[in-house]
Amino acid sequence: MALRFSLCPYRLRFKRPFGTAHGLRDGTDALFIRMEQDGISGHGEVTLPPYVKESVSATIERIKRLASMGPWDVERLTDALNGHHFFDAPACRAGLQMALMDLAGKRLQRTVYELLETTGFCLAETVMTIGICTTQEALAQLRELPETGALKLKVGDSDGLDRVKAIVAATNARILLDGNQGMLGVGDAAELAAVVGPERLIGFEQPFGVDGDKDSAKLGAVTGSVIIADESLQEGADLDRVAQSFGGVNIKLMKCGGLDRAKEIAVRARRRGLKLMLGSMSESSLGCTAMAHLGGGADVLDLDGPWLIANDPFEGVVLDTGRLVLPEGPGLGVKAALELNYSGV
Q1: What secondary structure, in 3-state letters, does the chain show?
Q2: What is the architecture, at CATH level 2, of domain 4-109?
Q3: Res. 24: pLDDT tops 90
Q4: Which of 34, 196, 228, 327 reaches 20 to 30 Å from 241, CA-CA?
Q5: In this predicted structure, what is the pLDDT of residue 143?
């Protein structure tokens, strides 16, 4: 029987408004994909914050065009995902490839991490994110978040210094600073790093714009901390340039185009001596669990969407003594928590 595609647009709502240097938002538009064959279904997620080029409506149309080119089977679709149709739509490809791997794993009765030939043990530091907000709101969020021993603090606003000082005083957790390209200069960024202190600073993620990689290199030299590329790393082709200015990379499925490409980037980054961070664009438990199947090779895991989202429609990865634990079962191991209204294409 040929593969069948079903789609469900969905709005993931944050428990609290989420602020970054890109702006404030109350949620993220997503598209869930169900791929079925012979009574077995695999699920994928396309999550699209407003600052990316892809949209839910365009993704739906792209998948409809793909479905019309069928019939498809797992092997033929795997080959197609490497074709030119997805060169400019990495998030769409990531969602389809996620569903395909989930389906393949269930069909073979193997986990996705086994298919990827990685380990299922996530020993990396797991960060919980506090977005840009008032100091009082940040302290309230700190009390609500599960304890992992590590926090990610969004900075790049005028109140960032006071907020970081308050969080540093309120907890003993290690801290990752994330500028989202919003820092104005090396001096301001170095001051924030100094407040955290070298013994507690995990690193500083994308402090400057993608045209400011030289400043990122200077910040690393001044502070002795690991500067992690996020927006500066979109795909594997960026690695050679990034390695000249950064000490680590943040790999995200919606940027790079899928678990297969994420693994490839991770392997190549390791060869260059770069630290590995696995991140997300506020995906649900589906997308975050998918990325966690690569977690055994990471230094930092930023997959906290399930703890920030109020209407997560899936159950997957959980926390145990501050570490992420993958669910049991073949494929991704993810289960439905809410009934979604899928429509066939």
Answers
A1: CCCEEEEEEEEEEEEEEEEECCEEEEEEEEEEEEEEECCEEEEEEEEECCCCCCCHHHHHHHHHHHHHCCCCCHHHHHHHCCCHHHCCCHHHHHHHHHHHHHHHHHHHCCEHHHHCCCCCECCCEECEEECCCCHHHHHHHHHHCCCCCEEEEECCCCCHHHHHHHHHHHCCCEEEEECCCCCCCHHHHHHHHHHHCCCCEEEEECCCCCCCHHHHHHHHHHHCCCEEECCCCCCHHHHHHHCCCCCEEEECHHHHCCHHHHHHHHHHHHHCCCEEEECCCCCCHHHHHHHHCCHHHCCEECCCHHHHECCCCEECCEEECCEEECCCCCECCCEECCCCCCEEC
A2: 2-Layer Sandwich (3.30)
A3: no
A4: 196
A5: 95
pLDDT in tens, 163-173: 999 999 999 99
- Using an 8 Å Cβ cutoff, are 41 and 35 in contact? yes
Q: Report pLDDT digits (tens) over 49-100.
A: 998 999 999 999 999 999 999 899 998 999 999 887 788 899 999 999 999 9
Of 23, 67, 33, 105, the closest CA to residue 326 belongs to: 105
Find out whether 310 and 19 touch, Cβ atoms under 8 Å: no
- The β-bridge partners of 228 are 205, 248
Q: What is the pLDDT at residue 314? A: 98
Cα atoms in the 13 Å half-sphere on the side-chain side of 201: 24
**Across 78-82, 147-151, 214-218, least confident range:** 78-82
Extents of the domains making up the chain: 4-109, 125-336
Q: Please provide the average confidence, as pLDDT, over all residues in the chain.
A: 95
The CATH class for the domain spanning 125-336 reads alpha beta
* The predicted structure's pLDDT at residue 17: 86
Phi-psi region of 203 (alpha: psi -120 to 50; beta: other; left: phi over 0): left
